[in-house]
């Protein structure tokens, strides 16, 4: 549980239109997701006194708050890549627990796919060339190349195979097949993953996340507001955050992600263990991210991720630990900083609102505990949130 006096719950969670959205702006998707999250909670926007947003506007989150008609007295604009939203959720939970806010809205939206299709932007090869990055960018060390290097190091040190990495993509697609809102639902095989066009060795195309449009929103509230909500609360039990490096030369071990620290902190603060989790929602811009995060969160030992994933454990249907139950960034949607989508899916699973992809606990009941862990940059940051229901 977040430290402080008051318990904190997620009371609203929603997505905007996702996938292929050619007729909306990022602001539109922010507003759409925010309205839906408030409607999900059954609360009026007047109760929102805290707001967190990143990635849009010159003065994020000021511009987005203005667009939504909010005047918050607590704000957060933390921006650490894909893990932003788990880190923001941790900050919001602490603020609510301490009485600095009563209801905090986290919201994100992006038209990453539509902008490229319309020629409004191009693909990013790097985050820039200032500061520590100036020593890497001139050599063509792109974002995906950094993940590929880390994956190759894991393969060399631990014997992880490309077929095992491909299994992550295959099982994500199997889960996406159960999600009517996933962009890609057709089954794929290991051979199809391996035979695709090479993007950055050892990653072929299907080892990489898709590019989509979409937005998401989550509303966290103090326990005294829960009784006014139309949905059952999903409690924030424990959180952790960690940053590890900016330059690859400062990363001590390519086979260990910052989730090794954020996960340990989150589980310790929640008073639970990885073995008690009914599912995991993990950031998966690339297949290796899923594998190494499973290790670092403690679902298997270091170097055992390959053997862990190859046995079908990540599937909703028949898997021991369903992972990325909506299909993840590899198949469902990935509009940029996808961390907020992990929280939405975790909440839906705990409430029993996931339809054909609904996970069941070992006793056949609805899941009681789940974890969402986001990764940012090139394994530079991590935020982990443990959630549970009554």
UniProtKB/TrEMBL annotation:
Q: Which domain of life is it from?
A: Bacteria
Pfam families, per database record: Thiolase_C_1
Instruction: Please list the residue ranges annotated as the Thiolase C-terminal domain.
Output: 240-389
Record-linked InterPro entries: Thiolase, Thiolase-like, Thiolase_C_2
| CDD domains (alphabetical) | SCP-x_thiolase
Q: Which PANTHER family match?
A: ACETYL-COA C-ACETYLTRANSFERASE, NON-SPECIFIC LIPID-TRANSFER PROTEIN-LIKE 2
Return the protein name: Acetyl-CoA acetyltransferase
**Source organism (scientific name):** Streptomyces cylindrosporus
């Amino acid at each position: 549980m977040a430290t402080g006096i008051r318990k904190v719950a997620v009371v609203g969670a929603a997505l905007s239109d996702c996938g292929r959205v050619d007729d909306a702006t990022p602001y539109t998707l922010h507003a759409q997701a925010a309205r839906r999250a408030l409607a999900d909670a059954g609360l009026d926007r007047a109760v929102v006194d805290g707001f967190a947003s990143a990635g849009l506007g010159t003065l994020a989150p000021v511009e987005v708050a203005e667009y939504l008609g909010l005047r918050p007295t607590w704000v957060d604009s933390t921006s650490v890549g894909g893990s932003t939203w788990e880190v923001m959720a941790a900050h919001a939970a602490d603020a609510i627990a301490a009485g600095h806010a009563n209801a905090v809205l986290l919201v994100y939206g992006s038209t990453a796919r539509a902008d490229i299709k319309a020629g409004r932007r191009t693909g990013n090869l790097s985050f820039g060339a200032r500061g520590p990055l100036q020593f890497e960018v001139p050599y063509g060390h792109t974002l995906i190349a950094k993940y590929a290097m880390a994956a190759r190091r894991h393969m060399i040190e631990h014997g992880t195979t490309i077929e095992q990495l491909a299994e992550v993509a295959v099982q994500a697609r199997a889960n996406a097949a159960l999600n009517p809102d996933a962009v890609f639902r057709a089954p794929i095989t290991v051979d199809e993953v391996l035979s695709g066009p090479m993007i950055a060795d050892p990653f072929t195309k299907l080892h990489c996340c898709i590019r989509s449009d979409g937005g998401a929103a989550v509303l966290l509230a103090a326990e005294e507001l829960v009784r006014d909500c139309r949905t059952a609360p999903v409690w924030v039990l424990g959180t952790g955050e960690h940053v590890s490096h900016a330059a690859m030369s400062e990363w001590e071990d390519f086979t260990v992600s910052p989730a090794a620290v954020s996960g340990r902190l989150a589980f310790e603060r929640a008073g639970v263990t990885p073995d008690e989790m009914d599912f995991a929602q993990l950031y998966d811009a690339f297949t290796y991210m899923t594998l190494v995060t499973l290790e670092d969160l403690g679902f298997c030992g270091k170097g055992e991720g390959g053997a862990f994933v190859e046995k079908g454990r990540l599937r909703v249907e028949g898997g021991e630990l369903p992972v990325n139950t909506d299909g993840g960034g590899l198949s469902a949607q990935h509009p940029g900083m996808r961390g907020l989508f992990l929280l939405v899916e975790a909440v839906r699973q705990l409430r029993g609102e996931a339809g054909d992809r609904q996970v069941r606990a070992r006793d056949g009941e609805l899941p009681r505990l789940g974890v969402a862990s986001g990764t940012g940059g090139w394994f530079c940051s991590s935020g982990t949130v443990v959630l549970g229901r009554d």
